[in-house]
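Onboarding guide, step 5: your first structure request.
Type a short instruction followed by the sequence, for example:

Predict the 3D structure of this protein.
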Amino acid sequence: MKIFLLRRLLAAVPLLIVVTFLASAMLTLSPGSFLDEARMQPNISPEFIARMERVYHLNSNNIFERYWYWLWPALHGDLGNSYASQAPVSSLIGERVVNTLLLTGSALIFSWLLAIPFGVFAAVYRNRWADKLSGFISYFGLSIPSVFFSLLAILFAAKTGLFPVGGIHDQANWDDMNSGQRFADTLWHLVLPTVVLGTIGMAQYMRQMRSEMIETLSQDFIRTARAKGLSWRRVVFRHALGNAINPLVTLFGFSLATLLSGALLTEFVFAWPGLGTLIYDSLIKKDEPMVMAAVAMLTLMLVVGNLLADILLAIIDPRIRLE
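The system replies with structure tokens like these:
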């Protein structure tokens, strides 16, 4: 197991290099730079622009040279300063990544808590009302775009007033709240983006859970357990569920990429202060240190997600752990 984990961690190194290099190359080859807005100001001299180009290494269009200017300090733990705010990139990323993890983690819990029982009931009551209801929910989650679903949720919040239309907390009264009120207010703002993001993941998990349960319930060991006089509830939840859930754990690592990409759009629509809005603003301004650090962080989160899926699968299934 230790050798497997070490091999996966070592494989993440070239992946990070390739992804960050491609991001740097696209930023270098795309038209414009961070100093374009400064060039339009008549009170800023060309000499100052030229000096800033040398400071920011924007005077070179060599993709390898520009990438090395970012990579070498990054290997020493220095992600640079944001061009726009002149603040350390690591501190800005640290503030936003917690909010993104809060949203994606809540969406994962929401999707798993609903997908597993819905998928089990759909398989047990195949071609009945539970199966049809689960099928409708899964088709809805798979077909509706996250941006459109987010706009519908904001429209619902604006019309009913039951939920806030955006943000992570109440900006006006936040300073006057105690810790309990702040926690409740954050959860209140978290409900709608969690439902939007979690429904998309839930649909995928639900369909996978249903198909795996149908296949597992037709196995010989299930018929043997029923022949021994075990109750149907115990057979389903003690014997069948443990075997059917393995593919869902594997799917967790792959679906994390979809979850994070959906979170970027959901954050932007709901004005959630996470990595999504930070990356969007940085791309508009061509704030290269911020974009590169955010891309590296998202890639690292995907690697960790897949690694966690492998560890959970080994814990759940002893056969994989022995292999």
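Each response can be followed by summary notes, for example: DSSP finds 14 helices and no strands in the chain.
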